[in-house]
Amino acid sequence: MTAQPQPLTLLRLFTGTAADESTDLYKNEAANPAGAVQIEMVDGSSSANRRLGTGSDMTVAVDHSTSKASFPLKARAFST
């Protein structure tokens, strides 16, 4: 009987400068810094659409057959 591989997961910690408006937004530090950026999970789970502000984390499974992990995210710009 072949032993099944143990499930592997990968943890990603999101850090950055929070926007003045909300800690769920990241500050735009470009030369013309109007606006902010929001990052959300889009993995189809109960955590989908969870905002990933600075200090948030996200854990995903590693595919044993490819040794790859995928972080399904979406980002959008906010005008401030």
UniProtKB/TrEMBL annotation:
Gene3D superfamilies: Fimbrial-type adhesion domain (2.60.40.1090). One of its GO terms (biological process) is cell adhesion. It comes from the Bacteria. GO terms for cellular component: pilus. InterPro entries: Adhesion_dom_fimbrial_sf. This is Uncharacterized protein. It comes from Serratia fonticola.
